[in-house]
Amino acid sequence: MRKLLLGVVVDPADKQEVVVMRGEESNKKGRMAPYGYVYDDKEKRDATGRTLRGLVIHKKEAMVVCKMFELCIEYKFGGRRIADYLAAKGYVTRNGHLFNYSTILRMLSNQLYMGIVRRGKAAPYYNSGLAIVSESTFEKAQEAKRKNTSPSNWSYADGASSS
């Protein structure tokens, strides 16, 4: 059977099979779930036969995410102080690295943690099974971040301010 020869499809009739194989391989690797979630290993298929893998909450990571929101709201910590706190307590990312402050700020702004799922151009939708924090907790964190952000003091060359 003439499948692949040095990565090139020899028989055009087999091209569809090769495309499907590569698609299934990419479903198994390359996608990293957001911190606090893992992809469900159970095989599910949609109406067209494509393999679907959904997100589920990772309990230990979800506790760290909750701690980030708590530090932001209760203690008015910014991204750097949260990163320092997590480092002092020994919390690390999945790759074993320390959390970066910019990653923490991005996580605190990610609506997925309150259950809002966004996929491409499709309309966002709410999934209560994916909510790690409540909507009120998420909104309080946004307000705390807004209050913690100092106004910038620089101006443009033409004299206009940045605010």
Q: How would you sum up this structure, described in words?
A:
This protein is an alpha+beta fold and 163 residues long. The protein has 2 domains: 10-55, no CATH class; 58-147, Putative Large Serine Recombinase, Chain B, Domain 2 (Hect, E3 ligase catalytic domain fold), CATH 3.90.1750.20. It has helices spanning 15-28, 59-74, 79-89, 101-109, 135-148; strands at 4-5, 8-9, 37-39, 44-45, 51-52, 55-57, 116-117, 125-126. A two-stranded antiparallel ribbon has the order 1-2. The longest helix is centred in the middle third of the chain and has 16 residues, at 59-74.
Brief summary of the model shown:
By secondary structure, this protein is an alpha+beta fold.
- Trace the largest sheet across and list its strands: 1-2
Task: Assess the beta-strand content as a share of residues.
Answer: 5-15%
Oligomeric status: single chain
Q: State the CATH class of the largest domain.
A: Alpha Beta
Question: Count of DSSP E strands?
Answer: 8
Number of helices: 5
Characteristic key phrases:
single chain, 163 residues, alpha+beta, Hect, E3 ligase catalytic domain fold, 2 domains, two-stranded antiparallel ribbon, two-stranded antiparallel sheet, 5 helices
